[in-house]
Every structure is written in structure tokens, then in C-alpha cells.
């Protein structure tokens, strides 16, 4: 007796056509994007992740496992990972992977994997307290208004209640609400959710005839979604990040700080030109400790990668550095990685590294560095 209706071979074939026959998931991308795919073991019902990264060590009681083959030749391909996470019971057969086990739909345990993504964030980037932007995307929620009463006694029977409870446990929208309610008010602007609402009964998961209707419905609802503008603002602001040019220097009353604002996106020349045009046409500027700094002070004939030099003063290296973007965004938005105290930024850049930096930039011992060395010497005594 078959426990599935469809073969997942078409899924693997589709990925193979795009990525090639032997495209393993565990391959770093040029953009350094970290990818994790959720799944669940078929026998133990243990949540797990297929990833294209390792990250730091994890506790044994974390609640999920990272699946990694002992030999690179046995690693999971992109198509196999897609088949595993898509193996919804009844629709697709659980996917067996040689040397690794048998896996099924990740939504059985993590239908909204945002919490897992944030847990992984701490292992991949342990110095990051929170993301610049977390976007949770749903697959649709029904505007449910059914009533349970004497006219529908079946809905109150044991098996019906068990089934409803099971389905509710996989409700991604409820998982989002539970998660968002646990986020401190001061950090909620970083977390967003996009989902569509079904006014009519939700189409079956294998109703391919409904795809065009779903596509149009999604485009229409997203265009008027109240979170659209805040999400765009956050995405634009998180493109930019700040780095110190060198260690701040002490002039007797303040620390003199010099640095640059860059963009993390690897845009081609046309993309850089469009970005500069948008920043110029909207008179965009960075606000740094109350001082506005134009994003594009002057236009060059060529379009090199974005770089904006900035200077400011701090009374202490424990002072917070906060830079907001205005103009291209509809409201002030903090750029990536900030606010953060200057000491933490310096440490993250490795400017205190005693054996130099990986980019071989020569370090000059400034007055502030000598002061910090004296402080460390006193503390070590």
C-alpha cells in the first residue's frame, strides 16, 4: 500500500536543470549567504537542518540536529534537500538519503522556522545580538469563522478534536504571534511578517490549477499590505554598514573618529548607478550624532562601489555609535549593525589584533591605543 500520491523526482529534476547534476548544498555562495533547510527525520521525528555552513559548536540539547555527511562525496545536493523539506505526508514519500537517513516535511515541526533562524544566527555570528531585519513569509491563512454547536456535533468528537489540535500545532501564523509577543518592544521594528488571507476555503496543497489565482491574490494583497513600507525601509537601511578607518585618537578632550559607510550588496555598475540616482533624487543623508551627512556629496563619471567617509567625536569609546538613513526611506532607519558602542565595533573589526589583520592593513599605534594598553596592563597586575 502506497503512503504517498506523487513522486518527488520532478522536484530534484527541476533543481538539477538549474544547478547541475552534482551541485551540493554545502557550498559557500559568492554572496556569503547562509542557507538552512528544515526537515524532520521519519523514524525519530527529530527536527534537523541541512545547511551550506558549519557555524560554531552547538549544545547537544539544542532540540534539532545539523545534518552533515562524513564524506563530502555523500553530502546532500540542493535537489535532495528540497525533496526532504517538501516530503509532506500523504503527498510525497519520505526521502531516503544514503549514509544520512530518511527525512520528511520540515513543517511538521517548524512550519514557521523563524525561531530556528535566530538560534542559528547566534552560532554563525555570535557577536550579533539581533538581526537587522527578520522577515517571516507565510503560505496563506484562512479567515476562519466556523462555529461549533449543536448543528455540527461531529466537530466536537474525539478524533475531530485531535485532528484540529494537530493542525493547529503547525499553524505558522500562531507561531508568529507567539514569537512576536515575546520580542521586546524596543526591538519589534526589526521583525516583520508577510502573509495572505483566504476569504474562501484554502486550496488543496496539490491543486496546481489554483496557482495562477494564488499568484494574483498574493501580488494584490502584498501591494497593499501595511507592512510593505516598513519592510522596504528596513531593507534599504540594512544595505549600509559602518567601519572605522582606523582606531580613534584621543585629543585630550574627545576621541576623534574616522570611518566609512559601505553597502553590503555586490551591485553591478548599472545597479550602483540606480542606487546613486535614488539617493540623489531623494536628497538622502545619514544622521550621525545629530549631524546630517549627505549620502552622495558629488557624482563621479564612474560608479565605484558605494563609500561615504564620515568623521565624528566621542567622549568615550563606550559611547554608542548610531547612524540613521533618511530620504530614500519614508522614516528614519538605523543602518546595519547599529546602534553599538565603539569598543564593540573596533573589536568586531579586529583593530586590536596584535598580529595584524587579514586584509594586511598596517596599524598605527595611536594615543588611544597606548591608553588602552596601559589600562590592560593595570588590570592584568
Distance, first to last CA: 75 Å
Briefly note the structural class of the backbone.
alpha+beta
Strand content: 15-25%
Main sheet: strand order: 4-3-2-7-6
Question: Rounded to an integer, what's the Rg over CA atoms?
Answer: 26 Å
Q: What is the β-strand count?
A: 21
| Sheet with the most strands, sense and barrel status | 5 strands, mixed
As residue ranges, the low-confidence spans are 145-149, 359-381
Round the mean pLDDT to the nearest integer and report it: 86
Count helical runs: 10
Shape: globular
User: What portion of residues is helical?
Assistant: 25-40%
Question: What would you note in describing this structure?
Answer:
With 381 residues, this protein is α+β, with helices and mostly antiparallel strands. It has helices at residues 9-19, 78-86, 114-124, 158-169, 172-182, 211-223, 228-238, 269-281, 342-349, 367-380; strands at 4-6, 36-41, 47-51, 65-66, 90-92, 95-97, 101-105, 134-137, 141-142, 191-194, 197-198, 240-244, 249-250, 255-263, 285-288, 291-294, 307-314, 320-321, 323-326, 333-334, 340-341. The strands form seven sheets. It has a five-stranded mixed beta sheet with strand order 4-3-2-7-6, with helices on one face. Strands 12, 13, 14 and 17 form a four-stranded antiparallel beta sheet that branches. Strand 2 (36-41) and strand 3 (47-51) form a beta hairpin. Helix 1 packs antiparallel against helix 2 (78-86). The longest helix is centred in the last third of the chain and has 14 residues, at 367-380. Mean pLDDT is 86; it is low at 145-149 and 359-381.
Amino acid at each position: 500500500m502506497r503512503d504517498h500520491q506523487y513522486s518527488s523526482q520532478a522536484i530534484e529534476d527541476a533543481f538539477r536543470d538549474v544547478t547541475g547534476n552534482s551541485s551540493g548544498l554545502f557550498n559557500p555562495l559568492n554572496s556569503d549567504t547562509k542557507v538552512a533547510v528544515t526537515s524532520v527525520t521519519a523514524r525519530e521525528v527529530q527536527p534537523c537542518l541541512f545547511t551550506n555552513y558549519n557555524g560554531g559548536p552547538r549544545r547537544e540539547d539544542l532540540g534539532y540536529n545539523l545534518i552533515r555527511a562524513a564524506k563530502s562525496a555523500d553530502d546532500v545536493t540542493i535537489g535532495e534537500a528540497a525533496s526532504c523539506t517538501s516530503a509532506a505526508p500523504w503527498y510525497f514519500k519520505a526521502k531516503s538519503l544514503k549514509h544520512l537517513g530518511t527525512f520528511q516535511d520540515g513543517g511538521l515541526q517548524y512550519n514557521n522556522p523563524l525561531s530556528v533562524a535566530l538560534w542559528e544566527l547566534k552560532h554563525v555570528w555570535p557577536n550579533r545580538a539581533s538581526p537587522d531585519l527578520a522577515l517571516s513569509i507565510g503560505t496563506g491563512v484562512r479567515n476562519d469563522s466556523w462555529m461549533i454547536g449543536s448543528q455540527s456535533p461531529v466537530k466536537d468528537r474525539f478524533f475531530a478534536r485531535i485532528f484540529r489540535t494537530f493542525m493547529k500545532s503547525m499553524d505558522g501564523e500562531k507561531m508568529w504571534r507567539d514569537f512576536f509577543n515575546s520580542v521586546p518592544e524596543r526591538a519589534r521594528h526589526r521583525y516583520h511578517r508577510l502573509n495572505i488571507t483566504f476569504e474562501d476555503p484554502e486550496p488543496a496543497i496539490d491543486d496546481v490549477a489554483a496557482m495562477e489565482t494564488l499568484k494574483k491574490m498574493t501580488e494584490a494583497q502584498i501591494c497593499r499590505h501595511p507592512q510593505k513600507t516598513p519592510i522596504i525601509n528596513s531593507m534599504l537601511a540594512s544595505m549600509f554598514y559602518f567601519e572605522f578607518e582606523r582606531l580613534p585618537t584621543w585629543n585630550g578632550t574627545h576621541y576623534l573618529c574616522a570611518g566609512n559607510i559601505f553597502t553590503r550588496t555586490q551591485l553591478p555598475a548599472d545597479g550602483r548607478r540606480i542606487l546613486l540616482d535614488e539617493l540623489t533624487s531623494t536628497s538622502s543623508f545619514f544622521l550621525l550624532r545629530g549631524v546630517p551627512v549627505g549620502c552622495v556629496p558629488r557624482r563621479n563619471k564612474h560608479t565605484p562601489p558605494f563609500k561615504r567617509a564620515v568623521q565624528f567625536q566621542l567622549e568615550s569609546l563606550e559611547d554608542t555609535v548610531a547612524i540613521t538613513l533618511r530620504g530614500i526611506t519614508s522614516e528614519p532607519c538605523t543602518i546595519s549593525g547599529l546602534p553599538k558602542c565603539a569598543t564593540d565595533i573596533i573589536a568586531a573589526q579586529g583593530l586590536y589584533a596584535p598580529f595584524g589583520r587579514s586584509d594586511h592593513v598596517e596599524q598605527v599605534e595611536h594615543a588611544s591605543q597606548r591608553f588602552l594598553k596601559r589600562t590592560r596592563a593595570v588590570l592584568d597586575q
